[in-house]
Amino acid sequence: MSYTNFTLDMDADGIALVTWDMPGRSMNVFTEEAMRELNAIVDRVAGDAAIKGAVITSGKDSFSGGADITMLQKMLATFAVEKEKDLEKATKALFDNAGYMTGLFRKIETCGKPWVSAINGTCMGGAFEMSLACHGRVAADSDKVKMALPEVKIGIFPGAGGTQRVPRLTDQQQALQMLTSGQNLTPQKAKSMGLIHEIAEPKKLVE
Known about the structure:
alpha/beta, globular, 8 helices
């Protein structure tokens, strides 16, 4: 199976390397299409006995900027129109659409195969929430690597598991500061907080 936004390569040890590289964009972002493709990849990893686990990384200099804000705007605009016709149906559709990312990351977390996020550059919002749902997190030792949940700066709390996973991984004070300020974390800071497991040389990140 081929994908538009991802490639999947297997090594001799049965580890799937999932590389996120959206065509025509300078940075990877979560769109509806990208989420559907990743959902199919998670199913493939979980269902193929030959695959022992997966590493997800980016084919670009940055990892990902998170969710496509225009996707969120489209959901709310659709809700505004549809609620006049059928409020209950419109509300359910908004809930299901807004919750798709949460369900996808929970599927990664519970699929029965280990996933590792190899963070090679800027990793923001939903992309960091996806990384938090993975069982391992490794960041490149580089000034290019910044991790954050910056949604609060535009009036949105991290809605795809960040509010749950960050406080479970670090102490409450640091979690609260991160979630309410949108602060950027260096690999060293993220590791000291317990949010990532390892820091690697950039060229050896996936290895």
